[in-house]
Amino acid sequence: MAGTTTTNTITGNTNPTANLPPLLDLTIDNITPNTIRINSQASDARLKYLMARLVTHLHDFARETRLSSDEWMAALQFLISCGKICSDVRNEFILLSDVLGLSLLVDNINHPTLPGGTEGSVLGPFHTHDAPVLPNGSSMTSDPEGEPMLALCTVKDLKGNALPGVTIDIWETDSSGHYDVQHADRDAPSERCIMKSDDEGRFWFKGIKPVSYPIPHDGPVGKLLERLNRHPWRPAHVHFKFEKDGWDPLVTALYLKGDPYESSDAVFGVKKSLVVELGKVDKATAEAYGVKEGSWLLKRDFVLSTQKETEELRDRLAVQELEKLGLNMKLVDHLPVPELD
């Protein structure tokens, strides 16, 4: 009855029902606005906006494609399969987000690069939280088959000042193209570590020359790539994740120049500014860092921006894009919500 209240037996909250739409005789033409209207009871303005746009785009997708019942069920079964194959060391949903280009899109929106800054790349599904904390100069590999590589790196701000005390998470595959978590007999982390930049913003480590490898393609995402006639390969790379209070976190990677998959990465992670060419360790460097002369040498200066700098740029870009779309929005905690005033 209009004007009455009911008590939610799950939460115990008393909610008015007088303004709810009559959810009867719903059709192709009115299902979308009615779904949005009933979801609009949410008190969280951002959640309300997200759900309204999600419902709008999902319903429009079904209308535009004339989605069949069989296709709809196949999509649901695909998502169920993604969930079933997930484990503590494998996340098929991150992989799905990666191959659809969504991971890179969301990262670019949330972490825009200021002029002179290091561009971001995809996190990927194989980052872990059990990497050992190692002092600078340590080896993070236990792979005797890998080609030794010395990495000499720095972390600076946009003005070229050294950034000490930055936490750097580093990981790569072994020489067979597998991350440690992909090995059933894994008993300890390998080809990964966490380091801190020193007083001069430097960090250095011993690893192996990265190799190309296929993303896991024995599950539903792999089958999807096969149906799309897409290969599952990623170019050789090393992952880096930088964190320091007051600074925008940076997730990025360095990719080897000339890799056969440099321009067709299965997860769209490669950017020209992140492509590097390895050198060779000379005699003086070999003696200074305790490695063999002739080993592979990776050198890179990473540049971070402050959290404030990144937020200001992100807000400016958000306003510009919203204006292009003709949307009357305001930013709350740097996220757009409808402007109702």
From TrEMBL:
InterPro entries: 1_2-HQD/HQD, Catechol_dOase_N, Intradiol_dOase_C, Intradiol_dOase_core, Intradiol_RC_Dioxygenase. Its cofactor is Fe(3+). It comes from Neurospora intermedia. CDD domains: 1_2-HQD. One of its GO terms (molecular function) is dioxygenase activity. Residues 139-287 form the Intradiol ring-cleavage dioxygenases domain. This is Intradiol ring-cleavage dioxygenase. Belongs to the intradiol ring-cleavage dioxygenase family. It comes from the Eukaryota. Keywords: Dioxygenase, Iron, Metal-binding, Oxidoreductase. Pfam families: Dioxygenase_C, Dioxygenase_N. Residues 44-112 form the Catechol dioxygenase N-terminal domain.
